[in-house]
Amino acid sequence: MAGIPLDDIVKAPKALLHDHLDGGLRPATIVELADGIGHALPCTDPADLGRWFVESADSGSLERYLETFAHTVAVMQTEESLHRVARECALDLAADGVVYAEVRYAPEQHLENGLSLDAVVEAVLAGFADGSAEAAAAGRPIRVGTLLTAMRHAARSQEIAELSVRYRDTGVVGFDIAGAEAGFPPTRHLDAFEYLQRENFHFTIHAGEAFGLPSIWQAIQWCGADRLGHGVRIVDDITGGKLGRLASYVRDKRIPLELCPSSNVQTGAVASIADHPIGLLRDLRFRVTVNTDNRLMSGTSLSRELALLTEAFGYGWAEVQWFTVNAMKSAFIPFDERLALINEVVKPAYAKLIG
Ligand SMILES: O=c1[nH]cnc2c1ncn2[C@H]1C[C@H](O)[C@@H](CO)O1
Ligand SMILES: [Zn+2]
């Protein structure tokens, strides 16, 4: 199918809920930062390096996909580099027409040079603020919220949950757990999730990506996740269009699915974009959102993910608006602020596009 041209999608306002800061660096920035600290890279030409990330992440396994992060995390160990990467992230998302983004990363992975958790968070928040201000000045306003991630194989989730709550009034809007899923169920971090619930805070959980329904069930029914990071394996509870109890619960409660089409193809969660369950899940009216996961590892952008879906499933502007409004409705910022973006930015733009 023809699909909507990428350039047109770039111009439309979009919202992004699932994007990793350490999965979205510019290849040229990695080369410069690595040179400055003497970190050895697989190659030093930015274009080659960009291809290396995509090819290496194209592994068919989440564990191998995650190995590529060693190089991005290695160059994000100082306040200056964290600030730079966050600033460029805000600028790149704004240039792609993203007007609202929640970007996540794991502060515990940025302590190798002796930074404190608070220093990491403050450097990233300052980078997002500076990048957003520059984007606005250039006529591309964007709001960036931060999610702090705890690594599911580690044991710092309570500490990171407390860190998130400490920065809730200065830009951190939610919490997440990420990393290899098999063998590391969400309930390992139950104390952190119960703490966050007592604090009336928001969190999403990577679940139902490399592991199936038990992970999703725990994330929702034991841990109380507001959203599912990926959640794509919820299709295992749907047979011939008929929903099982867990799938019904997720749909009926309007639990947002942060679907990441290209990432799922690379980790082997789905065979191809055309085979992605997003088509079925949309038809069944789940609260589906479209996301990038890791723009560097997938060589992608939110506009490209949407363009691929318009090609594969024949979607038009009405569907792109639907995905965008779903994401805005599911954002972790206050209701009135979500509504303002939907009514004042998203809907007027799509009214013109849909005609
Ligand atoms: O798709 C993913 N699934 C699980 N973990 C992931 C995914 N993408 C990135 N991560 C991990 C690697 C990063 O270093 C970490 C924090 O952003 O989150
Ligand atoms: Zn992710």
From TrEMBL:
Its EC number is 3.5.4.4. Substrate binds at H20, D22, G179. One of its GO terms (biological process) is inosine biosynthetic process. One of its GO terms (cellular component) is cytosol. Keywords: Hydrolase, Metal-binding, Nucleotide metabolism, Zinc. Its cofactor is Zn(2+). Belongs to the metallo-dependent hydrolases superfamily. Adenosine and AMP deaminases family. Adenosine deaminase subfamily. This is Adenosine deaminase. It comes from Spirilliplanes yamanashiensis. The lineage of its organism: Bacteria, Bacillati, Actinomycetota, Actinomycetes, Micromonosporales.
